[in-house]
Automatic annotation (TrEMBL):
Stretches assigned to the Radical SAM core domain: 175-396
Keywords, sorted A to Z: Iron, Iron-sulfur, Metal-binding, S-adenosyl-L-methionine
Protein name according to UniProt: Radical SAM core domain-containing protein
SMART domains per record: Elp3
Organism in which the protein naturally occurs: Abyssobacteria bacterium (strain SURF_5)
Keyword flag Metal-binding: yes
GO cellular-component term (any): cytosol
InterPro entries recorded: Aldolase_TIM, BchE-like, Elp3/MiaA/NifB-like_rSAM, rSAM, rSAM_sf
Keyword Iron-sulfur: yes
GO MF terms, alphabetically ordered: catalytic activity; iron-sulfur cluster binding; metal ion binding
Swiss-Prot/TrEMBL cofactor(s): [4Fe-4S] cluster
């Protein structure tokens, strides 16, 4: 039996043009440039996970390994080593190949994904053969099955691919847990867009991976194991019959509940224009979609996928509770300065819920690359720049920096015009709720319930969005959203108000912190994991096809989780207290009145001191300190008193705070805490600035 190792590239990944990591597509693309409302997320390359569960040999998968993890694993001497990667990781992957040649020279090296296509198109075979034995262009499962003598026609499993996080603002959660998984229905399509890497990889054809029934079974498996897991179905231009059939199968299953999860698809305007009424699409539980709009002028330029009235279709989607992630590109040959601006105005009118503004990029191997190469319009490039924002293209009418700045400003203009994406999604959720809540059909009502919950939960962000609105226009939109919320749900409960206030405070902290220590200075490296897939022993009964382990400890993750636990526990106390206070006869009301009285006395005492002709500062501070200590003691005592019915939450909060303090205490004992503080980039940078300023003055 051959031993197989599959892997993603090693970390840290090459930084993308906006100083962020390619594994965070929300920060890097869809929520880019939205200040404190920019989301932080994470994603996985799923190719190795799919291959590993569709071959008879037990396989190891390394997800986000460090170089050290990689060397250690390679030394185990695998027969076949496969690496799947995106093109910007080229240099890192070449280094991985060198490691294999050095420590396990008998291993066969197989490269897959977009990187393989770029390597094959850019280098002659004798060149790339020095570091790799095979390039897999197209279906990696088939390649491995053939190589291992397995049945190439066997059904394709996609059990429990690692969950990605669609994320949240970093100051809410820097380490959002995975909530969304991907499934591949088909790859490539026959529309032949000249810039498209996927369709090049699959020879300009739609390559089907699974049937609607198989896909439905995978969705069901997830909903049984981790209910609420959202699904992204990858099919480059979603086939109408396929998604309608998936929807029909899901609706036919009485255990599937559309109020608990959502489906995201990738689709073109042209395919959407085949629907007479987009209710038909919403009925499949599709609640968001990625659409490559590309340009207002794309239809006139031969991009068939864009045929149809994009603006009208998009607004019809929003009216049905379907949010969009719109792909738009700057840098087509027809983009003069005037046309580029007109193009962008059209995008603004389309009101994308989220937008991916990128540059036209000639990936090696695509027809666009070949044409530009012939025209002498590809200048030398760094592989890390062959991403969504570069690739050495020499533009006809615009400077490179000009396009990049247009994109940066474009994100800003979207924010200034429609507010943060959070607000735009909230609007879409209200639309979905209002439209479907009175429908007779059970599934439409479940869809309405999903939107109702999202809209309801959205309240906690409203005060923060209002305070940090980029301008008056957006502030007005936020206020209108608050009114819409109240029309449906009435006045928010005291706990919701507390939670919203707390969120607003956190937003203020994030806003200030971002000024002196922008979040993208601290690149988050995804954790390295090792998965052992069970080969021919994998079952289709809902059990996991692998066992997994974390390879490294990330001290920042450990610290952040302890802080988050303590925060959540304190919020739990606030929640419990506000619930108890909803009962007029609760004993806690007396305590609250007492605490108010005591706090008022402290302030009065301070005021009395200040009125003296000469303030006795030590006495004033000592009285205030004693007053505050007594106040805190009374509050804690009341919290611990079982009669007040919040003692459980208080004990929990005390424990979580104690754990956090222990953590810092250990850091100080080892000398790490102070060292970390003094060497923190923000502190060091601030100290340096001060020194420089002082030196300049002196
Ligand atoms: S429609 Fe999408 S998948 Fe198809 S060729 Fe165009 S960009 Fe590629």
């Amino acid at each position: 039996m051959k031993r197989v190792l599959l892997a993603t590239p090693t970390t840290p990944y090459p930084l993308q043009p906006w100083h962020d990591t390619p594994t965070d597509i929300m920060r890097q693309r869809f929520f880019k440039g939205q200040g404190i409302f920019t989301f932080e997320a994470h994603m996985h390359l799923i190719g190795p996970f799919i291959i590993a569960q569709n071959i008879s040999a037990p396989a190891t998968v390394l997800d986000h390994p460090t170089v050290e993890n990689w060397i250690e694993e390679i030394k185990k001497g695998y027969d076949i080593v496969g690496i799947s990667a995106l093109t910007p990781s080229f240099e890192g992957v070449m280094e991985m190949c060198r490691v294999v040649r050095k420590y396990s020279p008998k291993s066969e090296i197989v490269l897959g994904g977009f990187l393989a296509q770029s390597v094959g198109a850019y280098y002659p075979q004798e060149e790339w053969k020095k570091l790799a034995d095979h390039l897999v262009l197209g279906d990696g499962i088939r390649w491995f099955r053939e190589r291992l003598g397995d049945d190439v026609k066997a059904p394709v499993r996609q059990h429990y691919l690692p969950r990605c996080a669609m994320g949240s603002p970093w100051w809410i959660d820097r380490w959002p847990p995975g909530d969304t998984t991907a499934m591949i229905a088909a790859l490539g399509c026959n529309r032949g867009c000249d810039f498209c890497t996927t369709t090049t990889l699959f020879g300009g054809q739609r390559h089907t991976m699974v049937s609607p029934q198989e896909l439905k079974n995978e969705i069901k498996m997830w909903q049984n194991r981790l209910p609420g897991t959202n699904i992204i179905i990858y099919e480059e231009d979603q086939d109408k019959n396929f998604i309608n059939e998936v929807g029909r199968l899901l609706r036919a299953d009485p255990e599937i509940d559309f109020s608990t999860f959502s489906i995201t698809i990738l689709i073109s305007i042209n395919t959407l224009s085949l629907y007479n009424d987009l209710d038909e699409m919403a009925h499949n539980n599709v609640k968001s979609m990625f659409i490559g709009l590309e340009s207002k002028f794309a239809p006139d330029q031969g991009y068939g996928k864009r045929a149809g009235d994009a603006k009208q279709i998009l607004h019809n989607l929003y009216a049905r509770g379907i949010g969009t992630m719109i792909g738009w590109m700057a840098g087509f040959d027809f983009h003069t300065r005037e046309i580029l601006e007109e193009d962008f105005q059209y995008l603004l009118e389309c009101e994308p819920t989220a937008a991916q503004l990128t540059r036209v990029t000639p990936y090696p191997g695509t027809p666009l690359y070949k044409r530009l190469k012939e025209e002498g319009r590809v200048k030398p490039f760094k592989w890390e720049d062959v991403s969504f924002y570069g690739g050495g293209m020499i533009h006809k009418h615009l400077y490179e920096h000009e396009i990049m700045e247009f994109i940066r400003q474009g994100d800003e203009r979207l924010l200034q015009t429609w507010g943060p994406t959070l607000l735009r999604f909230l609007k879409v959720h209200f639309n979905g709720y209002e439209r479907y809540r009175k429908y007779d059909d059970k599934h439409f009502r479940q869809i309405a319930e999903f939107h109702r919950q999202k809209a309801f939960q959205g309240y906690v962000m409203i005060p923060a969005m209002e305070r940090f609105a980029p301008n008056g226009r957006v502030r007005k939109m936020v206020k209108e959203m608050e009114q819409r919320w109240k029309q449906h749900f009435g006045e928010p409960s005291s706990f919701m108000r507390t939670q919203a206030k707390y969120t607003e405070m956190k937003a203020a902290y994030a806003f200030l912190k971002d000024k002196v220590d922008p979040v993208n200075r601290h690149i988050r490296i995804p954790p390295a994991k090792r998965y052992y897939f069970f080969g021919k022993d994998i079952k289709d009964d809902g059990s996991l096809p692998y066992a997994k382990e974390y390879l490294n400890e990330d001290p920042r993750y450990i610290r952040d989780m302890k802080i988050q636990d303590a925060e959540m526990a304190l919020l739990g106390v606030a929640h419990a207290a506000t619930q108890v206070l909803d009962y007029p006869e609760s004993k806690l009301h007396e305590t609250v009145s007492d605490l108010r009285r005591d706090a008022s006395s402290i302030l009065k005492s301070l005021a009395d001191h200040l009125r003296q002709p000469r303030v006795d500062v030590p006495a004033m501070l000592s009285e205030a300190g004693a007053g505050l200590t007594a106040l805190l003691a009374k509050a804690v005592e009341a919290g611990e008193d079982p009669e007040n019915e919040i003692d459980f939450s208080v004990q929990n909060a005390k424990e979580k705070l104690a754990v956090l303090l222990d953590y810092y205490a250990q850091g100080l004992e080892g000398g790490n805490g102070l060292k970390e503080l003094l060497t923190h980039p923000a502190v060091a940078g601030f100290a340096k600035d001060i020194l420089e300023a002082v030196t300049a003055v002196v």
